[in-house]
Amino acid sequence: MKLVIADAGPVSPLPILRPPAVPITDFGHPPSLLPYGARDSYKRDPVEREVPAITLENEHLRAVFLPGLGGRLWSLVDLSTGRELLHRNPVIQPANLALRDAWFAGGVEWNLGTTGHWALTCDPLHAAWVDAPYPVLRLYEYERMRGLVVQIDAALPPGSRALVVSVAVRNPRPESVPVYWWSNIAVPQTPGTRVLAPAALADHFGYAHRLTTVPYPGDPDVSRPGTWGAAADYFFHVTSETPWIAAVDAEGHGLLHTSTPRLRGRKLFGWGTSPGGDHWQRWLSGPRSPYLEIQAGLARTQLQHLALPGHTTWTWTEAYRPLALPEPDAPYDRARAAVDALVQASGQPATGPWTERPVTDVIHRGSGWGALERRAGGLPASAATPFPDDTLGAEQAPWLALLEEGRLPGEAECVVGARWLALLREAADPHSRYHLGLNLWSTGDRAAALDAWGKALAERRDPLVLRAVAEAHRIDGDDATAAALLLEAHALAPAVRPLTVETLAALLAAGRPADALTLIDRLTPGDRAHGRIRLLEARAALAAGERDRTGRILREGLVVPDLREGEDALDELWFAYHGEERDLPAEYDFRMS
User: Fold this and answer.
1) Prediction pTM value
2) What is the pLDDT of residue 209?
């Protein structure tokens, strides 16, 4: 189908060594996001282009999935009314909200891994039809950080008034793995939209990163996100044996989501009505496209993980259906009771009988990482989620050489896991020592990782190894050492833009703004024009006393495509230059609190 979309761009060659920024309250907090690198090279240049799409349809509903973009359920239309039940974004514009940076708003996103929008949100999934009496679409992939296989089966059985989605998460390892799942459902927000859930209490979570239990909907009534002053999450204390959540407009029309009990968590997120919240919505969706999110997860909040035992599969079923409240203006308690009665009368979504059935026609290819893991003995062969050899590509070729020849023949994208760690310990080439350090870092063994990188640097001053050691120093707060190492790395690889960004940021943190400006003056015009680098230039110029340089950048207009959700760099720069007496222009106002 044709969509207006900005490409997410290639993966950064710099693997993510830092842990997720959101505080996790339990055992599931990963020490890093390895093996993934960031997707941070996108631009704000959407154009109309053809995007792979797969459609399911019966006499009541039409569902459209985007297998090339994380398997996103992009559209769900009630054919009896023509209503779109989801927020179908008029533009797919990546922005820095996901674990790996690039994320886009709209539809239903499947989040597996750890707190945040998942690592595969802009990546392709495998898609195939299932051997079933009516069309069943299977989306599946190997999630590399947790080492899990995710399978999403979607169907519109004849006569069904609900889209049925059965999810399976398989742990092929012998040991327990922390697991996190949230189905993130974007729906349109109108002034009268309200969100209903079977709960009298909710845990409020805002940008202060504190959980506070509050009454829901409370006084003032927070069930109407269009009235909020600031962005917030509400995690519901669900009491129903059939968990559900619904969002309806002022006329009582909207979407009802129910599930089997394993998916017990429910959440509401809204951007609020502050200038920053409004700007974020326009940044993600363009003008006049406000939306909110209703979500469903395995745990009660997104700061928690559950332990998935070894060699175990967890399954659940979700149902997405149109909802029409008979009394749209009813008080909250009566409206909630009406939905609850409808849910109880309908019963829990029927689990699809097709979870273990084989696929027939493969219609979209995901990555070759599952095939590589199968070749390494980490995944058993499966007709339900096949990862055949013909999906192996250039990304996997160095790791096949390690598997078959005991060496990495050159630079390679990161791979982690116990099997790979054992192979890397036996290899002796410099590339293997770098990846040995990455694997040790992914387990939390920082000292051993630094030792491996030190041995690699003793043989060759490699920019990726220098950067890894520098990042370890940055995480520890040693900005001076990090800056020196990154300058050396950048001199060896000046064309790697993510390395340029990290070097400039480290120089600023180390109190060396003049050196940052010297480096910027040597960059290519294309790199100097990049929004993130222009922001760093403006900050460096201000710190170095070159106020005119900062003022020129602000007057020309500063657009930072990868501005992070919650990042206050633009407003801080503006007020540092102008003082508090000057109002912050709307185009620079991304403040969320």
Assistant:
1) 0.96
2) 78
Closest CA to 45 of 88, 9, 11: 9
Per-residue confidence (pLDDT) for residue 472, from 0 to 100: 98
- Cα gap 392→519, rounded to integer Å: 39
Residues 471, 491: Cα–Cα separation, whole Å: 17
- Specify which residues 370 forms β-bridges with: none
Tokens (6 digits) for 78: 């009630």
What backbone torsions phi and psi does residue 179 show, to the nearest 5 degrees? Answer: -125, 145
Asked if the peptide bond before residue 35 counts as cis, ω within 30 degrees of 0, the response is yes
Main-chain phi, psi angles of 512, to 5 degrees: -120, 60
The residue-averaged pLDDT of 105-109 equals 98
Residue 67 DSSP SS3:
coil
Picking from 406, 429, 411, 430, the residue whose alpha carbon sits closest to that of residue 420 is 406
The CA radius of gyration of the chain, in Å to the nearest whole number, is 25
567 DSSP 8-state letter? -
Cα–chain-centroid distance for residue 538?
29
pLDDT tens-digit readout, 511-537: 999 999 999 999 999 999 999 999 999
Would you give the DSSP letter of residue 81? T
Nearest to 369 by CA among 415, 338, 323, 311: 415
- Cα distances (Å, whole numbers) of residue 227 to 191, 223, 251, 326, 566: 8, 9, 17, 24, 21
Round to whole Å and give the CA distance between 109 and 86. 11
Strands of the sheet containing 312-324, edge to edge, are 194-196, 244-248, 253-259, 312-324, 163-171, 148-155, 136-143, 126-130, 359-364
Are the beta carbons of 4 and 18 closer than 8 angstroms? no
Distances (CA, A) of 154 to 120, 121, 133, 168, 266: 18, 18, 13, 12, 21
First to last CA, the chain: 38
Given a contact cutoff of 8 angstroms between Cβ atoms, the answer to whether 219 and 241 are in contact is: no
Q: How many C-beta atoms surround the C-beta of residue 325 within 10 A?
A: 22
Which residues, in sequence order, are CB contacts of 54 under 8 Å at separation 6+?
Answer: 64, 65, 67, 127, 137, 363, 364
Give per-residue pLDDT as tens, 322-357. Answer: 999 999 999 999 999 999 999 999 888 887 778 899
Whole-angstrom distance, CA of residue 138 vs CA of residue 170: 15
